[in-house]
Design a protein that fits this description.
about 350 residues; mainly alpha; Cytochrome Bc1 Complex, Chain D, domain 2; two-stranded antiparallel ribbon; 12 helices; 2 strands; about 35% helix
């Protein structure tokens, strides 16, 4: 009898243990993500400009070469530098005639009307610039070249100069061996666009966390991620790119007409393309006019009607600042370029 009672007691304890464990089963666990996991998109080059190593290397050199500007000092990298998250750290960029290295210490008479957007993950955008004036990366390259403030050069004159440089003649011929004369404006645009399509940020701690690495995000970053979703931030800054091709009004007062200047639609007045938050730690100041000096200021401003305490702002900032940081494909800055001109100097900042 005693043996049977002991066996029954053991069975009962086993049953109770199983029931308790069932209550802790994965189905009862809190979700790891506040949204459905989505795969990171693949880069798609247009059929008329397939990406090749030769184009990318040519584009990298052109991107850093001040032969593209009228003062022979400004290059694309001046406003989209490696130290500054492929932006420049200024509220508004300083174009030709500027003084000092790229970054926060640069001054000059020619300031752009808007903050320089990062070009990380620009390959995935259906429209470029804060107002969406360009429909492709190739088209986007053309705007700063001819702009009298930014680079101030006739693209045809640039192509003519490039044709006089043997190293560029060889590089263009390698990129387009089928062309009788490859150094033309369109090929110039295509080379820089091909390079810019390689500027992909897709291996941040957030991406590793989504892939199953539980330790990739701290508890504070996870809390910030859930607050980011709860407060509606992800409706515009859509994962996994944390941006979108939507045009939205900003939280700051501004006379800038935004998208309206392109479409003429009154509904677009004061609306701007939703920027990426990838590598946002390095792309301050924020908003189209650079009016928010810190990430915390920008988060608090964008909260608008949603009440956010300081601790909640700090948690969201931790998620964005640490969880979305990945510079593993940062482009290498050449020590010299085929024109023989000096590659623009870059400033520095201390990451926080």
């Amino acid at each position: 009898m005693h043996a049977r009672s002991a066996a029954a007691g053991l069975a009962l304890r086993a049953l109770l243990t199983a029931l308790l464990l069932a209550g802790c089963a994965p189905d009862a666990e809190a979700p790891r993500l506040p949204w459905a996991a989505a795969p990171f998109p693949a880069v798609e080059a247009p059929p008329e400009n397939p990406t090749t190593p030769e184009k990318v290397e040519l584009g990298r050199l052109l991107f850093h070469d001040p032969i593209l500007s009228s003062d022979r000092q400004v290059a694309c990298v001046t406003c989209h530098g490696q130290i500054w998250g492929l932006s420049d750290g200024l509220p508004r960029s300083i174009g030709i005639g500027g003084v000092g290295p790229a970054g926060t210490g640069r001054t000059g008479p020619n300031a752009t009307p808007r903050n320089a957007q990062t070009i990380w993950n620009a390959a995935f955008r259906a429209t470029l610039f804060a107002d969406g004036r360009a429909a492709s990366l190739e088209e986007q390259v053309l705007f700063p070249l001819a702009d009298p403030i930014e680079m101030g050069r006739d693209p045809e004159a640039i192509a003519a100069d490039l044709r006089e440089i043997p190293a560029y003649r060889a590089l263009f011929a390698a990129a387009w061996p089928e062309d009788e004369e490859p150094i033309v404006v369109q090929r110039l645009l295509e080379a820089i666009a091909a390079f810019e399509r390689t500027l992909v940020s897709d291996d941040a701690p957030y991406d590793r966390y989504v892939a199953g690495d539980e330790g990739a995000l701290s508890a504070e970053a996870v809390r910030g991620m859930f607050l980011f979703a709860e407060k509606g931030c992800a409706e515009c800054h859509v994962p996994p790119l944390f941006e979108s091709d939507r045009y939205e009004p900003t939280a700051i007062a501004s006379a800038d007409e935004g998208r309206f200047a392109i479409t003429g639609d009154p509904a677009d007045r004061g609306r701007f393309r939703v920027p990426t938050l990838r590598n946002v730690r390095e792309t301050a100041p924020y908003f189209h006019d650079g009016s928010a000096r810190t990430l915390e200021e920008a988060i608090a401003a964008e909260a608008r009607g949603a009440a956010l305490g300081e601790e909640e702002v700090a948690a969201i900032a931790t998620f964005l600042r640490k969880g979305l940081m990945d510079k593993s494909r940062e482009p290498k800055r050449p020590l010299e370029v085929p024109s023989g001109l000096r590659v623009p100097l870059d400033g520095y900042q201390i990451p926080r």
